[in-house]
Design a protein that fits this description.
The structure holds 2 protein chains of 2 kinds. By secondary structure, chain A is mostly helical. Chain A has 4 helices and no strands. Helices cover about 65% and strands about 0% of the residues of chain A. Chain B contains 24 helices and 17 strands. The chains are: A mainly alpha, B alpha/beta.
């Protein structure tokens, strides 16, 4: 999945969560610019699960910043890219493990 | 904007309505707005300020968990919360009386908000309750002066119950203990608030502060009892509880003063930055996901208007009686089905009379039952009801069940916790309780010490311990098909004991966790089909440790691989089928959460 694809899916989830119709930018802060609080972050988790078919709790992402204002669309996309890369590796490992068992 | 202001007859009413959220959160924007309104209110123009909510289910549910989550060091707490503290202080310094009219949840920082308002009135609904979430749910110390103002306003004993032990108070209890001045029925609440304001302005209502309630003798004895209870907690939790108790005792002794808040903030920052607190924050998101799941995939439906049952005895009648005592605005609870029920009514029937169940009914079971071969469409299952647990497994035959969605929403408003399941081989809760207790029984049958078993699981973080769980299951009617006579005899030896970290039994906690893995989506037979549902059930019913985050968050493939390496000691405590699930999970499963 390309970074652009992740960005589009993340934006779709954010729009779904906030009903925000304005276009989103990587520098937008979810807290300061889009009015996110912890409850809405939880709702975003659910929307992201629909987009990516993976439960994404986001608390590691939230806990990693020095200030909640730094939780930007761009940082979310980077976080998702790293997570999805791990998922891909894990899926390949699982496939390999299953094929080894079958042999 | 979060607050809407209106003026009538010299009263400034500030109504909080957090945009786009189903509950109110006093975030930065709301805090700035509040402070501005309150500071500008001068006695020449405003007789009183009334704080209200536009959401009847929520007065204030929090200030922003993200602030606590982002806290990495002691001083962060003060830095992140300056704006909110200013808003709170403005309430305390207001030049006109500030009156909080509470409808809906008043949680954590919401209670602290209240402590800054001089006069308070609360609606008599089930959703209107008062709960300090900080320590009970997130293992950190609050930071908006509750450690000082609670002892000053409701006494040390109440403060300990609220803050340390997570007691939830109804509006009636809050009034009885002086947290609010008065209560009023939800019907006609607006008019009653107006009358309350007039009484305040006429000087007929005593302010909620300042007050001093604890004698020096009682402070010593209350502190001693709390210290003894803290000793029974897992060692990782004790320091945060001790810090919080010290703050409460200091305030009760009248040593509050300006330095108290600085000490509270420092303690809050330290605790919020700890690993156990960081893990506990994660459970907030898990709970929200689990509570959203009933609505997903179900057709959009109107809220339930009535709950009824024709049964005069049995589970349905028992539940209906309990529901009658829980006032949820807009929902009637009627004890006999009749022609006058609205179309959006849910009828409760008894699980044991499932043949009488119609398509739109909810079958109720409040004691241990096996999932029937031809089960009802939906079952509200609470096997530990008699032990005081108010967690329902809502077992469904199919997904996208709109009736289940609205019933789950109603139960939640009535103060119950609910997780959906789709049983394959049995109720999820039966599987979970058995998975938790069977390794303990095997350990005891092999000659293990009951005290060490109890201590090991408590030290791991199961604060209620296996003795409580077995007693609750036994009282719930757990049958011999799930626990053999030998297992029952062994489990009966368990007694509450202090947490202990005897290395010889640490394998027991690992065995319990591994056994529980088979109750999660890692197993094809698990009733809880989403990790958040398994996590909610494990937390609510088994008391799965907060400091570990949640069951599925804790059970990463790496963790399960580590546990499996324990070899024979583990294999003697875990069933072969459960070991197989764990091995498959490590080999070819995928992580529950990212």
């Amino acid at each position: 999945m390309t970074a652009q694809h992740i960005f589009e899916k993340a934006c779709a989830a954010i729009v779904n969560t906030t009903l925000n119709t304005r276009s989103l930018h990587e520098s937008d802060s979810l807290v300061d610019d889009l009015g996110f609080d912890s409850m809405r972050m939880a709702t975003l988790s659910i929307a992201l699960e629909t987009e990516f078919d993976q439960v994404l709790l986001l608390n590691d992402w939230i806990g990693a910043v020095d200030d909640p204002s730094h939780l930007t669309v761009g940082s979310l996309v980077s976080y998702l890219a790293a997570v999805l890369s791990d998922c891909m590796t894990e899926a390949l490992e699982a496939e390999y493990a299953l094929s080894s068992v079958a042999q | 904007m979060p607050f809407q202001a209106s003026r009538s007859n010299g009263t400034l009413t500030l109504t909080l309505d957090s945009p786009g959220s189903r509950v109110n959160v006093l975030n930065r924007a709301a805090s700035i707005q509040l402070r501005s309104f309150v500071r500008e209110a001068c006695p020449e123009e405003v007789r009183a300020i009334v704080i209200r909510t536009a959401k009847k289910n929520s007065f204030i549910n929090g200030v922003g968990l993200m602030l606590a989550q982002a806290t990495k060091k002691e001083e962060d707490a003060a830095r992140f919360t300056a704006c909110v503290r200013d808003a709170y202080q403005s309430l305390r310094d207001a030049r006109v009386p500030v009156i909080a009219a509470v409808q809906g949840n008043c949680y954590g920082c919401g209670v602290e908000f209240l402590l800054h308002c001089k006069y308070r009135i609360a609606a008599e609904t089930e959703e209107t309750h008062f709960y300090m979430t900080e320590l009970a749910d997130y293992l950190f110390i609050p930071l908006f002066r509750s450690t000082q103002y609670l002892p000053e306003q409701v006494g040390l004993a109440n403060s300990i119950d609220l803050l340390l032990w997570g007691d939830k108070w109804s509006a009636a209890k809050a009034a009885e203990q002086g947290l609010v001045n008065a209560t009023a029925s939800d019907e006609g609440f607006d008019a009653r608030v107006d009358r309350f304001v007039e009484r305040v302005l006429a000087g007929d209502v005593e302010p909620c502060f300042p007050r001093s309630r604890s004698s020096p003798e009682s402070i010593g004895s209350l502190a001693g009892a709390a210290e003894a209870r803290i000793e029974s907690l897992p060692s990782a939790y004790r320091h945060v509880y001790e810090d919080c108790l010290n703050l409460l005792v200091s305030a009760a002794r009248g040593e509050g003063g300006p330095g108290h808040h600085a000490r509270e903030m420092a303690a809050s920052g330290r605790s919020a930055a700890s690993d156990i607190s960081k893990a506990a924050f994660g459970f907030f998101y898990v709970r929200q996901i689990a509570e959203h799941l009933p609505a997903l995939g179900a057709a959009e439906g109107a809220p339930v208007a009535a709950v009824s049952s024709a049964a005069k005895s049995g589970f349905a009648a028992d539940l209906l009686r309990e529901l009658e005592s829980r006032i949820v605005p807009g929902v009637r609870v009627v004890s006999a089905a009749n022609g006058s029920l609205p179309s959006l009514a849910i009828r409760l029937t008894d699980f044991d009379s499932a043949s009488e169940t119609c398509f739109g009914d909810v079958a109720v079971a409040l004691q241990w039952r096996e999932f029937a071969a031809n089960p009802p469409e939906r079952v509200a299952y609470c096997p530990l009801f008699r032990a005081g647990t108010r967690f329902f497994e809502l077992a469904l035959r199919r997904s996208g069940d709109a009736t289940a969605a609205v019933f789950a929403q109603y139960l939640s408003r009535a103060g119950f916790s609910v997780a959906l399941s789709r049983p394959v081989k049995g109720f999820g809760l039966n599987q979970m309780i058995a998975a938790c207790l069977r390794p303990v029984a095997k350990y005891l049958l092999a000659g293990g010490s009951p005290a060490l078993a109890e201590g090991a699981l408590r030290e791991f973080g199961f604060v209620r311990g296996p003795a409580w769980l077995w007693d609750a299951a036994r009282r719930g009617g757990a049958p011999e098909t799930d626990f053999s006579p030998a297992e029952r005899s062994a489990l009966a030896l368990l007694r509450p004991a202090h947490a202990g970290d005897d290395a010889s039994v640490l394998v027991l906690a690992d065995a319990v966790c591994l056994s529980l893995l088979a109750c999660t989506p890692a197993s094809g037979d698990a009733a809880f089909y989403h990790p958040a549902l398994a996590d909610l059930a494990a937390r609510e019913v088994l008391d799965f440790p907060l400091g570990r985050g949640s069951l599925c968050k804790y059970l990463t493939r790496r963790e399960v691989r580590r546990v499996l390496q324990r070899g024979v000691a583990l294999e003697s405590l875990v069933a072969p089928g459960e070991l197989q699930v764990a091995e498959n999970f490590v080999r070819s499963g995928r992580e529950f959460y990212r």
